[in-house]
Specification:
The strands form 5 sheets. Strands 1, 2, 3, 4, 5 and 6 form a 6-stranded mixed sheet that branches. Strands 8-7-11-9-10 form a 5-stranded mixed sheet. It is of the alpha+beta class and 722 residues long. It contains 25 helices and 21 strands. Helix 8 crosses helix 11 and helix 14 crosses helix 16. The radius of gyration is 36 Å and the shape is elongated. Helix content is 39%, strand content 15%. Strand 14 and strand 15 form a beta hairpin.
Length: 722
């Protein structure tokens, strides 16, 4: 089956083997030359299509499934008046054309029997086995009698959960919807529109994510025709008007064939018409359409290396449009798609888009997960599983499906699930980020560290305080890129919770549902804005004082100042003079020192790396030699004063926890300043009195271990040359 325009009169036809017209087959060919009340030859069309992909397939089970389906649906008709059996036959033929294996086709023939006839799941299991029974159950709708208005969203929830365990469930559902959309013309206009909108919002994105482009593109065209009939007809007219025996793509295709033939590359060059929605999108993007905009060239080769050989020849012999080049072979899309995309300039400046892929890539591009066959078939060469599992794990299950299955468990309300599902499926691109433990996280494009936190930790992410992205500290609002390495930082305080601001940065439904749930359960626990606190250090200048400061803590020990050359535990060269330690850098042993004489004859002693030292030298101040009084540090009765800067992520109780860590280290707070938060980061400045400078390293370690604190350093504020 092709992913091209559904219109049989489309001007650009694919140059490949003839394909069965499924639309005609669904209404006419399946009925055969016999009367409408029996279809003895109908299964032959399915068998022929199936054998084209699986020559050795055993058709016995298909014949048995057809007999059961035909007998159970006998007497039922569709809205069009056709025998109902034409529907499961058409659905099965769609899947057979895509290359589905026998089990999927068997379940497809039976997919409506349990829902619409007297056949039970137990009967299906008894006659066809557990796998077929599981697939049939997965696509069986829930009764409106039992679920009311919630029947549709809950049916989709049921199908998605079943798809998480077996992707073939959704394959059958997509083919089922395609045939229903083809025959939707017999329905009332309002019902057509309702079904088309659900198809647009849910089924088409699912087809895209599962890589089933053949179904996705025709569904798009059918929805386009129902929801936008005028634009559809206008597009149809443009395609018809572009039909020409000497179309520019034909000329470029011939040139490409000749180029590859001369290079000795065996390749099949086809003209691939755009479907209606694709033409419509190009017209909206470019305005006036060019002759080459109605299709693309498709080059099919045997090996991956041949793809790059073709690319090299095209870029050598034609003028390439470099901005159009994309390599989806080295970096496949999240829906299994692989291909090289480029564009070249042909005769008279005509630009043709070119797709280059192997025959295997082309099959996967058209059929997606359907082309993978049965992912649960036993691999006899592989080692047997040592631990049985009640749930079959699909090795091909993509990350987006795992995320969807995770968050749907939290969306207990059908309306929330339905709304969130549509929003989630509207995100059409995925990125992969790496965890520091070697694992990976699959996230939608535009996801932030908030999304990564909930993807990795679930509800534990409520205590998130920040992250490291590619080794650098980052806020939770940081948007991640494909290939980033992220390490999430969690607070030790399990009582803390998310801020309402996180909802502005959450892209995934799992994160939004979890955050909203916590905020709903804790309406009175609004996250406080960190308090701005200032107390100017009497020992020297500190940070600029903000408006309306609020004292964070009163000094628990007075600042001690002594006059004389040893007054601060420091010996200075020269005559006796008052000595004080500079408040801008608060030196402590074993810091290297230098001093400067200031007004009044006092000597202010700085750390040598203090910025004030360079400022003093620039204005011509002569340095005064200074050193600690002895190897053991300062005098025991004087202690030492130091100013520390703690960089942290804002969270509740952070100030209290830091204060407790300082008190535990037997340090007294002389003054404290907390600057207004910026992007969830908070800067704390403490001037502390320690009983002994030897305790400073332990104090700084204790402060760094407080949850949310990512750095503690000695302050180096610029000081005036007093």
């Amino acid at each position: 089956m092709s992913a091209e325009a559904a219109d049989p009169g489309a001007p650009l036809r694919r140059r490949s083997r003839p394909r069965i017209d499924l639309r005609r087959l669904g209404r006419v060919a399946l009925l055969g030359p016999v009367s409408r009340d029996r279809l003895p030859d109908a299964i032959g069309h399915v068998a022929e299509a199936h054998r084209a992909h699986h020559p050795d397939a055993d058709l016995t089970i298909l014949r048995r499934a057809y007999v059961l389906a035909e007998s159970s649906h006998r007497g039922q008709t569709r809205k069009s008046g056709e025998p109902y059996i034409t529907h499961p036959l058409a659905v099965t033929l769609i899947l057979a054309e895509l290359g589905a294996e026998t089990t999927t086709l068997t379940a497809s023939l039976l997919h409506d029997t349990v829902e619409d006839t007297e056949v039970t799941l137990d009967q299906v299991r008894e006659q066809f086995g557990d796998e077929v029974c599981y697939l049939v159950d997965g696509v069986t709708k829930l009764e409106k009698v039992d679920y009311g208005a919630a029947a549709e969203p809950e049916t989709f929830r049921k199908m998605l959960v079943a798809t998480g365990n077996d992707v073939r469930v959704m394959s059958i559902k997509l083919a089922d919807r395609l045939h229903n959309m083809r025959t939707l013309g017999v329905m009332r206009p309002e019902k057509q529109a309702r079904i088309a909108k659900v198809t647009r919002d849910v089924l088409i994105p699912l087809a895209e994510r599962l890589g089933v482009q053949a179904l996705k593109t025709e569904l798009e065209d059918l929805v386009f025709a129902i929801l936008h009939p005028e634009e559809y007809e206008h597009t149809r007219a443009l395609i018809a008007a572009a039909a020409s025996p000497d179309a520019p793509l034909d000329t470029i295709a011939d040139n490409v064939r000749g180029t590859l033939r001369d290079a000795g590359i065996t390749a099949e060059v086809l003209i691939r018409p755009r479907h209606f929605v694709s033409v419509h999108r190009v017209r909206r993007k470019r305005g006036e359409l060019r002759g080459t905009d109605f299709g693309r060239l498709l080059v099919l080769v045997t090996e991956d290396a041949d793809c790059y050989a073709v690319l090299g020849e095209l870029h050598t012999c034609f003028t390439p449009v470099i901005s159009e080049f994309k390599d989806f072979i080295a970096a496949p899309k999240f829906n299994l798609y692989q291909s090289l995309h480029t564009a070249v300039v042909g005769p008279e400046g005509a630009v043709a888009e070119v797709l280059i892929r192997t025959h295997r890539m082309h099959k996967v591009a058209e059929a997606g997960v359907v082309a993978l066959g049965n992912p649960y078939a036993q691999d006899h060469a592989a080692a047997p599983q040592t631990e049985p599992s009640d749930e079959r794990a699909d090795p091909t299950r993509p990350g987006w499906l795992s995320r969807l299955l995770d968050w749907q468990e939290s969306a207990t309300d059908p309306d929330t699930f339905w709304t969130t599902l549509r929003a989630d499926l509207a995100q059409d691109r995925e990125i992969t980020v790496f965890r520091t433990d070697g694992g990976t996280l699959g996230l939608p494009a535009g996801a932030s560290c908030v999304d990564a936190a909930y993807a990795q930790y679930g509800d534990r992410a409520h205590t998130s305080i920040g992250a490291r992205v590619n080794g650098r500290l980052a806020t939770l609002s940081t948007v991640l890129s494909d290939g980033d390495t992220v390490q999430l930082l969690l607070a030790q305080d399990t009582a803390s919770g998310p801020s309402p601001d996180w909802l502005d940065h959450a892209r995934t439904p799992a994160a939004r549902i979890a955050i909203t749930g916590w905020l709903t359960d804790h309406p009175d626990e609004a996250q406080p804005t960190p308090t701005t606190m200032t107390s100017v250090d009497p020992g020297g200048p500190g940070p600029a004082e903000p408006a309306a400061p609020e004292r964070a803590a009163q000094p628990t020990a007075p600042a001690r100042t002594r006059s004389g050359p040893r007054a601060a535990g420091v010996v200075v060269d020269g005559p006796d003079a008052p000595v004080r330690l500079a408040g801008c850098c608060t030196p402590v042993p074993p810091d290297e020192l230098t001093g400067f004489t200031v007004r009044g004859g006092a000597v202010t002693v700085h750390r040598r790396e203090c910025p004030a030292v360079a400022a003093m030298r620039e204005i011509g101040r002569a340095p005064v030699g200074a050193r600690w009084a002895d190897a053991g540090g300062r005098e025991s009765d004087a202690g030492c004063r130091v100013t520390l800067v703690a960089e942290s992520f804002g969270r509740p109780r952070l100030l209290a926890d830091l204060t407790e860590a300082i008190a535990t280290a037997e340090a007294a707070i002389v003054s404290a300043t907390v600057e207004p938060p910026s992007e969830q980061r908070v800067r704390h400045t403490y001037t502390l009195q320690l009983p002994d400078a030897a305790g400073l390293p332990a104090l700084m370690r204790a402060m760094r271990e407080v949850a949310g604190v990512y750095d503690v350093s000695r302050a180096q504020h610029p000081a005036p040359a007093g």
